[in-house]
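note to self — DONT lose this again. spent like an hour looking for the file last time. sequence + predicted structure for the chain T wanted, 136 res
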Amino acid sequence: MIDLRTHQQPIVRFLETGLRRFRESWPSAPVRHVALYSCPWSGWVSLCFDSVPQPDQNCPDFEHVEVALYEATDWASEYESDEHPRVKGLDGEVSEVDLDTEGDEGFNRLFFDFMRDLLSSPEAQGVLQTLAGPDV
C-alpha cells in the first residue's frame, strides 16, 4: 500500500529545492505558473515553470519543463504488483483502484487529488510565495 502522507514533506522539500535551483539558474526569469507534472504509475513527479499563466496549457509545453524530478519507486511498485493497488490519502482514507475497470485514470485521480491538496497547503503556498513570487 502507498501511504501518500509519507510523501507530503519530501515533495514540499522537493518543491523548495527545485525552486531554489531554478532561481539560481534563471534569476531574472518570471515565474507565473508552477505545476507538478506526474506519472504516478511510473513513480515520478516533475516540476515545471512558465512565465505566462495559461491554465489550459499542458505542463510539457511550459518554458521550463522537468526543472526537478521526484522519484517515488513505491508508487510504481504498488501499481505493478497488484490489480487492485491501495493508496492511503492525506486524510488517512484508503482507496483501492480496480485497474481492470478504472485503468490508469483511477490510479491517476488519487494522485491528482493528493497533488492538488499538497499544493494548496499553507506550507507549500509559503514556499511558492517566497521563492516563485506573489504572482504565482
